[in-house]
Amino acid sequence: MADVSTRAFDVAAIMAGIYGDGIIGVKGAFDAAWADRLHLDVLSLFEEALRQPGGAVGRGPNRYYVEIHPERIQGFVELVRHPWVVAVSEAILGRDYKIVEIGFDVPLPGAAHQPWHRDFPSPDATLRGRRLNSLAFNLTTVDVTPEMGPFEVAVGTQWDEADGFAHGMFPPKTLYPRYEARAQQKMPRRGDISARSALTIHRGTPNRSSSPRPALVLGVDAPDARNADRHDLQFTQRYYDALDQEVKAHLTCRRVAQLEPIVQAHTIEGLVMGEG
Length: 276
Known about the structure:
alpha+beta
């Protein structure tokens, strides 16, 4: 990780990107070897989650989400202390931002188009206050190619009203032409990080390759957001005690004697079947 201060990043550019397109990124935040270690951790945890009842939740055909314990991946502290992650979190969410989730998506070979969606209904802070109070950071563990089912985002749609949206999350198909006209496919490489509003309309695309496309997800909230209610961030007391105070100040978590199995609470029913 480069030795760089959060002051090296332009707050105006960060805010313009997140409040404008709804997604921004930084290339080469980590080296490929760091991402390769993360990849091995993710694959191991994925196999374990598939064996655990409720450990992996379907997000469409051949597509899963797994919430994990931070201390079971290498590089958690390096990620949450990365100057770009800190700078973006402070710029959008304020200095008292909270880390509420860490997990990963795995679109396997054969994963289909997801329906266009946002990850949860828009809160009043956004609908009425025109303020974003949560972010999702994503890190690919592979170099993404067009055949691997890239993440697709309809830029600028984090502000769309939810009229006619099923469960406040799934727009009617009559609006699909709007999203397709705004769609951008993202093909990051190992070591890149993106940050987005989970309210920006997006979808996974078909994985026509022979390889999975894992991506780590780090969820961060402003103090008034309630996304921690959907997650179960846990640390053993021993691991937590070894963290520095700056990291601890940004955690919304449980401290436990031994890590407990996580049963994913943030099920998105409308994604289970996909579009085929």
